[in-house]
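Have a close read of this protein, sequence plus C-alpha cells, and explain what the C-alpha cells say about the fold. Thanks in advance:
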Amino acid sequence: MIDLQHLPETLENTIADYGNESIVTWNDERFSDWGLNPLLKDTLPRQNIDVYEWDYTKGAENIRRAEKANIGITISEITLAESGTVVFFSDKDRCRTVSFLPKTFICLIPKSTLVPL
C-alpha cells in the first residue's frame, strides 16, 4: 500500500517498468487531488513520453490514442480484493476504453474502494 506522498514516485517507477512510450489517462480530478498532475503533465512529457488525457470533445481521436497507447491509467470506484476485480463508473471523462485498449493497464485503487469479504 502506497500513501499519497509517495504515489507520484511509485507511479513513475511503475510506468518505467512497463515501458513508458505513451500513456492515456482519464480526465479525472483525482489525479490532481492526489498530486499526480506534475508527473503526468510535466515530468513525463519532458522525458518525451506522450501523455494523452481523454477528451470527450475529440470523439474518435480518443479511441485512436487509446489503441496506440502503451499504458492506460484509471482509478477504481469499487474494488473486490478477493477476485482482483475493479469496477469503473464510466462517463464522458472516464471511458472504459482507457482500461482495455492500451497494451498495459494500471489501476489506482483507493483503500476506500475495497469491499470487505
Remarks:
- The first helix runs from residue 7 to 17.
- The CA atoms of residues 7 and 36 lie 8 Å apart.
- The chain has five helices and six strands.
